[in-house]
Amino acid sequence: MNIEELTDRFRRSHGYERLEARAALFDMDGTLYDSMPGHARAWMEMCASAGLTASPEDFFMAEGRTGADTIEMLMQRQYGRAATAEEVERLYAIKSANFRALPPVEVMAGAPEAVKACMDAGMTTVLVTGSGQTSLIERLALDYPGAFGLKVSSRDVRHGKPRPEPYLRAMEMAGVEPWQAVVVENAPLGVRSGVAAGVLTIGVATGLPAQVLAEAGADIVFNSMRECAETLPELLYHMSRF
Ligand code: CA
Q1: Mean pLDDT score of the chain, rounded to an integer?
Q2: Cα(88) to centroid of ligand 1, in Å?
Q3: How crowded is residue 119: how many other Cβ atoms within 10 Å of its Cβ?
Q4: CA 31 / ligand 1 centre spacing (Å)
């Protein structure tokens, strides 16, 4: 299916009379920054030191969950019991230290061009992240100048992804309705959050196979942020041509 057909299928399935490209809502980890391999590595090193069995894919799939939820998943799976508060705190501290010891995270190739395509189209761009990683959030102003004055982080919502609240909050900030926005996400939980908010959700397969994002409900799936950046002008044109 081409971009025009996918856009129109989204519009009809939601009963929207028309679409308008007014706000672009961007996830951060794995979308604007190539941070997921580092997170997976930091988790794997923690697991090795704590005697927990895991694979890197576990952490790509769990992306968007809190650290506490991820540790809970590991303990339930291996020992069939809940993690204690002490374990959560200790194991997450190890993971965080492992992550900080890695080389600095790089900007995702193609992401600045994708953000620029939205800004060039006159859209408001909003950051929507579950991350509390201030170091990366502070870099946004340098790496994406002028783009993310509006931000929704874990502190701004009660129920994070895959619930719709983060994206609903972002639309409220931007003053737009679901038919006037797009979501750009790389992980299944984030895709589900965008879909639940009623927004046209672009899944970008920067870590997981494209199929996983399609199964999570992404309306359009790209294989890279470069491909996303190249196709966005056409997509935004189709959204606004009514
Ligand atoms: Ca992400």
Answers
A1: 95
A2: 22
A3: 15
A4: 6
**Contact of 188 with 170, CB cutoff 8 Å:** no
pLDDT in tens, 74-93: 999 999 999 999 999 999 99
For residue 61, report the distance from its CA to the centre of ligand 1, in Å: 10
CB of 162 closer than 8 Å to CB of 131: no
pLDDT exceeds cutoff 70 at 241: no
Identify whether 162 is preceded by a cis peptide bond (ω within 30 of 0). Answer: yes
| Rounded distance between C-alpha atoms, residue 195 and residue 183, angstroms | 9
Q: How far is Cα 208 from Cα 186, in angstroms, rounded to an integer?
A: 8
Q: Provide φ and ψ at 222, rounded to 5°.
A: -115, 155
User: Domains plus CATH for the chain?
Assistant: 3-35+106-241 (3.40.50.1000), 36-100 (1.10.150.240)
pLDDT digits (tens, 9 = 90+) for 187-225: 999 999 999 999 999 999 999 999 999 999 999 999 999
For residue 125, the 8-state DSSP code is E
